[in-house]
C-alpha cells in the first residue's frame, strides 16, 4: 500500500521542454538521457508513502474491540465505569484540543505551569501513538529487550505521539496545507486525511520537512520536554494500566467493562476525535465551487467558513477544531481557566478588526494576514 501524487513528479512533456535545443539537442535515435529517469524516479521515491502494516493491524483490532465495547457498555458495565470512561475520554480530548492544538501548536493563549502540567497529563490520556512508533514497538527485538537503554533508544528514534511530536506534525500540516507535502492529505479527501494518513509512513521528503519545523518554543518548555522524554512510561501507566486496573481494583467491575469499554471504546473515540482536528476541514469546509453572494466578514462567525478562517489566522483561541467558533467545550474550558487566572493573554480577533483588515488589504494590495 503506497501512494504518491503524480502531479508532483515532473511530466515527460516538462522534461522534454527543458532539454537543450540546436546542436546539443538529443537525436531521435539516441536513448533517453539517464538524468530524466533518475529525476522522475527520485521524485517518485521522495513522495511515496508506504503502509505501516503494524499500524494497519493495530487499528483493525482496535476498531473491532471498540465496536464490541458498545455492546459491553449496555450489558456488562456499571454506572461508575461509564462515568469514569466518559471523564477519561473528555480529559484526553481536552488534552489534544486545549493543550496540544490551541496552546502549544498555535500559542493562542498562555498558561501557568499548573495548567500546562494538567494539559500534559490530559494529552497523555489521549494515547497518541504514531505509525512510526507502532512499527518500531511492534518489532520482536524491541519487545524482547525491555532494558532502560533499549526503551530510551526507541523513544529517541520513534515519533511517539507526545505533545512535541503532535505539534510538529500539525505545524507541518498548516505550513503545507492543501499541497502534496501535507502529511494529512489536505489536497485529497476525507478518508485520506482521517484514515490513510494515520496508517502510512511519511515520505522521505515529508521527513525532511518535518525535521525542519521550528520547535524552539517547545524545546524551551520543560513540561513538554519532560513528557517527550518519558512518554513511553507515562503512556503505559496513565493510558493503559490506569483505565484497565481501576474498574477491577477499586469498584469490582467486570473484565469486559475494563478492557472493552474503559480501554478499547475510549481509545477508539479519542483517537478519531484527535484525527478529526486535521481532517475536519473536509466536513465543515466551504465548497470551493460554491460562491457566496453576500460574504465579507461572515467567515468569522459562520461554520461553513471555519477552515478558511482557522488556516488563515490560527492564533485565535475561539476557533474550534470541529467547525464552531466562539463556543464549544474547549473554548469554555479555556475561558474558565482564564477566569481563575491560570490562562492569560487569550488571543482573538474582533469583527471590527476583520472589517478593517479586509478594507486595508483591498486598498493596499497586501495580504490580509498582515
Automatic annotation (TrEMBL):
One of its GO terms (cellular component) is endoplasmic reticulum membrane. It is a multi-pass membrane protein. It is found in: Membrane. Residues 1-46 are annotated as: Disordered. The chain crosses the membrane at residues 56-74, 79-101, 230-248, 254-277. Its main location: membrane. Its cofactor is Fe(2+). GO terms for biological process: unsaturated fatty acid biosynthetic process. The keyword Cytoplasm does not apply. Keywords: Fatty acid biosynthesis, Fatty acid metabolism, Lipid biosynthesis, Lipid metabolism, Membrane, Oxidoreductase, Transmembrane, Transmembrane helix. GO terms for molecular function: iron ion binding; stearoyl-CoA 9-desaturase activity. Coiled coil: none annotated. Residues 35-44 have a biased composition (Polar residues). InterPro entries: Acyl-CoA_DS. The histidine box domains are involved in binding the catalytic metal ions. PANTHER family: ACYL-COA DESATURASE, FATTY ACID DESATURASE DOMAIN-CONTAINING PROTEIN. Belongs to the fatty acid desaturase type 1 family. This is Fatty acid desaturase domain-containing protein. It comes from Anopheles melas. The lineage of its organism: Eukaryota, Metazoa, Ecdysozoa, Arthropoda, Hexapoda.
Amino acid at each position: 500500500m503506497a501512494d504518491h501524487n503524480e502531479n508532483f513528479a515532473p511530466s515527460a512533456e516538462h522534461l522534454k521542454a527543458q532539454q537543450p535545443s540546436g546542436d546539443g539537442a538529443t537525436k531521435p535515435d539516441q536513448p533517453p538521457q539517464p538524468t530524466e529517469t533518475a529525476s522522475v524516479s527520485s521524485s517518485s521515491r521522495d513522495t511515496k508513502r508506504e503502509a505501516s502494516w503494524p499500524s494497519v493491524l493495530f487499528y483493525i483490532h482496535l476498531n473491532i474491540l471498540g465496536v464490541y465495547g458498545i455492546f459491553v457498555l449496555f450489558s456488562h458495565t456499571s454506572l461508575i465505569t461509564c462515568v469514569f470512561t466518559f471523564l477519561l475520554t473528555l480529559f484526553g480530548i481536552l488534552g489534544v484540543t486545549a493543550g496540544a492544538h490551541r496552546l502549544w501548536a498555535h500559542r493562542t493563549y498562555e498558561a501557568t505551569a499548573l495548567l500546562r502540567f494538567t494539559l500534559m497529563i490530559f494529552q497523555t490520556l489521549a494515547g497518541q501513538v504514531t505509525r512510526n512508533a507502532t512499527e518500531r514497538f511492534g518489532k520482536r527485538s524491541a519487545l524482547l529487550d525491555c532494558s532502560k537503554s533499549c526503551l530510551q533508544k526507541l523513544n529517541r528514534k520513534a515519533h511517539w505521539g507526545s505533545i512535541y511530536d503532535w505539534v510538529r506534525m500539525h505545524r507541518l500540516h498548516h505550513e503545507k496545507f492543501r499541497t502534496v507535502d501535507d502529511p494529512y492529505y489536505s489536497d485529497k479527501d476525507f478518508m485520506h486525511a482521517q484514515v490513510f494518513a494515520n496508517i502510512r509512513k511519511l515520505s522521505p521528503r515529508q521527513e525532511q520537512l518535518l525535521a525542519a519545523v521550528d520547535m524552539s518554543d517547545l524545546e524551551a518548555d520543560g513540561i513538554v520536554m519532560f513528557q517527550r522524554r518519558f512518554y513511553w512510561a507515562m503512556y503505559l501507566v496513565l493510558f493503559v494500566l490506569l483505565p484497565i486496573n481501576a474498574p477491577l481494583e477499586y469498584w469490582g467491575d467486570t473484565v469486559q467493562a475494563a478492557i472493552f469499554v474503559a480501554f478499547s471504546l475510549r481509545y477508539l473515540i479519542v483517537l478519531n476525535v484527535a484525527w478529526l482536528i486535521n481532517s475536519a476541514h473536509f466536513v465543515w469546509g466551504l465548497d470551493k465551487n460554491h460562491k457566496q453572494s453576500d460574504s465579507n466578514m461572515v467567515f468569522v462567525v459562520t461554520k461553513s467558513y471555519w477552515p478558511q478562517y482557522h488556516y488563515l489566522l490560527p492564533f485565535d483561541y475561539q476557533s474550534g477544531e470541529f467547525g464552531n467558533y466562539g463556543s464549544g467545550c474547549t473554548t469554555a474550558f479555556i475561558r474558565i481557566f482564564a477566569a481563575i487566572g491560570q490562562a492569560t493573554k487569550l488571543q482573538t480577533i474582533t469583527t471590527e478588526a476583520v472589517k478593517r483588515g479586509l478594507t486595508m488589504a483591498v486598498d493596499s494590495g497586501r495580504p490580509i494576514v498582515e
